[in-house]
Amino acid sequence: MGLISFSINGTAVSGAEGETVLTVARRAGIHIPTLCHHEAVEPSGACRLCMVEITHKDWKGWKGLVTACLYPIEHGLEVSTDNEAVRECRRNVLDLLLARCPNAPAIRDLAAEYGLKQTTLTVDEDPTNCILCGLCTRVCAEMGHHAISTVGRGVSKKIGLPLDEPAESCVGCAVCARICPTDAITFREDGKTRRIWGQNFELLRCSECGASHITRAQAEFICEREGMTIEDFEKCDACRSRETALAFSRMVQW
Amino acid sequence: MVEKEMAVQLKRLYVTPGKCIGCRTCELSCTFVHSTEVGRLRRSRVKVHDTGNETFIPVLCLQCEVAACVRACPVGALVRNETTGAIDVDEERCVRCLSCVVACPFGNMLHDEQAAMVVKCDVCGGNPACAMFCPTKALVYR
Predict the structure, then answer these.
(1) CA nearest to A9, candidates A62, A110, A89, A86
(2) What are the chain A neighbours of B78 within 8 Å (beta carbons)?
(3) Is A154 within 8 Å of A128 (Cβ atoms)?
(4) Among candidates A26, A81, A92, A89, which has minimal Cα distance to A54?
(5) How many Cα neighbours within 13 Å face the side chain of B115?
(6) What's the CA gap between B32 and B122, in Å, rounded?
(7) Are A3 and A118 in a shared domain?
(8) Proportion of chain A in helix, strand, coil states, percent, rounded to 5
(9) Do residue A115 and residue A188 come from a single domain?
(10) Pick from A89, A114, A130: which residue ends a domain?
(11) B2-141 — its CATH code?
(12) In terms of CB atoms within 10 Å, which of A75, A209, A244, B112 comes out highest?
């Protein structure tokens, strides 16, 4: 137990045992770029953008590049988050990502930060915005749905549905689309239905104003988990806020 | 023992509806203090309702002891702030499934689509702007 002291860019920092370099760096306000990292799920080190250089006075001059999101902190570690070796490494990663996703704004912006206007490699014939980081699949599993996963291997690997058929466990919550760091997953809504992953989901609409937040399938999923009934979701937040005010006005005497 | 002492020290936002004149200064100040960029205003977490007969009631998060939003969150992104006693949204952890928005029975959990985040009253970290600017002291933090 006790705090582990080490340094990031020459500044003394400390963290608890088991914490990662990224966690401590963020807490200290030191910026390390990430794409596949999200606090809601375990780190996976997929995007390779959080690469940092580490060394230690006992390592006889040995230096190494590691992912900050996975590397556990240790006493006396010396971390560099922005030296030339690190920048070169990230530039190479972004060069590859840019070849795959030449049109993704998130990748283009990051690449520009590292001095890359366009990829030095051959642009993918079939460009996509998906970097295959799998954040969507990890969050989907965390939510308890397990609807999407990585499908195929090698160059044909993609994010998709098992056997490319509509998944029964998908509730159309669209968290995958909202959380995607490169906006590769899209959904369409017309006020009544939401279309995502090849399925149409009925949107649960407020009985008073018609506004909608979630799908009926997601509401049913929450009902089952929390022991609620679908009637609990009859009204939207705005109409419920108004109901609260009316209930108070009846209760309070003045 | 420590918990008891904490509970005594914690302040709360008190609403006195009879004093509210419906000027909505609270909504304006809430939006203002929570907006981080010029021209991109965030949604107000307090809402003044006209309930008829010229009575106005400001509705904001009650910071429930046993909160439906906290229970509904599948990733633990809603956490009680030990210093303010308010329930805060951990924006790094939130996955925007909107479970909390539909779970709150009082309609005090909001989805701010422009900010791409769920928002709720955080008592401004211990110095609520709504109470500070309320001209009639209908909202008081004590």
Answers:
(1) A86
(2) none
(3) no
(4) A81
(5) 21
(6) 14
(7) yes
(8) 35, 20, 45
(9) no
(10) A130
(11) 3.30.70.20
(12) A244
Last residue of a domain, one of A101, A130, A159: A130
Confidence grade of residue B41 (pLDDT, cut at 50, 70, 90): confident
Is B90 at the interface with chain A, CB within 8 A? Answer: yes
CA distance B121 to B86: 8
Quote the ipTM score: 0.86
Quick one: A48 and A120 in the same domain?
yes
Residue of A nearest to B76 (CA): A40
Let me know if residue A251 belongs to a domain. no
Cα gap A138→A158, rounded to integer Å = 14
Q: Are residues A124 and A147 in the same domain?
A: no
Total domain count, chain A: 2
The full set of domain ranges for chain B reads 2-141
Q: Do A118 and A174 reside in the same domain of the chain?
A: no
| Candidate from B92, B93, B111 with C-beta closest to A213 | B111
Neighboring chain B residues of A225 at a CB cutoff of 8 Å: 74
Q: CB contacts < 8 Å between A and B, how many?
A: 106
Would you say B105 and B114 are in contact if contact means Cβ atoms under 8 Å apart?
Answer: no
| Predicted model pTM | 0.87
Which residues of chain A are under the pLDDT cut of 50? none
Q: Inform me whether the C-beta atom of residue A89 falls under 8 Å from chain B C-beta atoms.
A: no
Supply the range of the domain harboring residue A157.
135-244
CA-CA distance, A88 to A107, in Å (whole number)? 16
- On whether both A165 and A85 belong to a single domain, the answer is no
User: Which tokens sit at A88?
Assistant: 């070169």
Report how far residue B25's alpha carbon sits from residue B12's, in angstroms, rounded to the nearest whole number: 19
Q: Does B103 touch chain A (CB under 8 A)?
A: yes
- Work out the pLDDT band at B1, boundaries 50, 70, 90: very low
Q: Percent helix, strand and coil across chain B, each rounded to 5? A: 25, 20, 55
Reply yes or no on whether the pLDDT at B39 is more than 80. Answer: no
How many angstroms separate the CA atoms of B130 and A144, rounded?
38
pLDDT digits (tens, 9 = 90+) for B85-137: 999 999 999 999 999 999 999 999 999 988 889 999 999 999 999 999 999 99
Q: Please report which confidence band the pLDDT of residue B42 belongs to, taking 50, 70 and 90 as the band edges.
A: confident
For an interface test with A, the pick among B26, B43, B57 (most A C-beta atoms closer than 10 Å) comes out as B57
